[in-house]
Specification:
This protein is α+β, with helices and mostly antiparallel strands. It has one domain: 60s Ribosomal Protein L30, Chain: A, CATH 3.30.1330.40.
């Protein structure tokens, strides 16, 4: 009888962590022991849901032509639009993103990136990493962003 009660408790606990009907629960954590983040979260904890991994998106349009050569703001907007399109194909939105990795060829333009990013992430910001690179796959590209998103299991 004790084993059955323990098994029932564990089952309830697991379902509780995943949320009602297998939904995802997302918790953004910014410990006071770390510097206050600007536009990102130090930690995003997810329980339940379906995980989506979006390949690095660059500033190309549907035809594969570079958008905004030499203009980080235009390229960043195009990258976020591409992320929205990729996520939309799986029934997700930018609100479902829990982690991004940003590759930039010139981090001295971080303010420009943040200005655009903050227009797309209007709720809790995802966990984030930013890396300066010497070059991306095409020399005219200035930024690439990959993302991880979590959606409800039945979405």
């Amino acid at each position: 009888m004790k084993r059955q009660a323990l098994a029932a408790f564990l089952l309830l606990l697991v379902h509780g962590l995943a949320g009602a009907e297998g939904r995802r629960l997302v918790k953004h954590v910014n410990p006071r022991t770390l510097a206050r983040p600007n536009g990102y979260s130090h930690l995003v904890e997810v329980a339940g849901g379906r995980t989506l991994y979006v390949s690095g998106q660059v500033a190309v349009d549907q035809a594969g032509s570079v958008v905004g050569a030499g203009d980080l703001k235009a390229q960043t907007r195009q990258v976020f639009e591409n992320l929205k399109s990729a996520l939309g194909a799986a029934g997700a939105t930018l609100d479902d993103v829990v982690k991004i990795t940003v590759f930039m060829t010139d981090v001295s333009q971080l303010v420009v990136f943040r200005e655009v990013r903050d227009r797309y992430f209007t709720k809790e910001p995802p966990a984030s990493s930013l890396v300066e690179v010497a070059r991306l796959v095409r020399p005219e590209l200035m930024i690439e962003i990959e993302a991880v998103a979590v959606v409800e299991a039945d979405k």
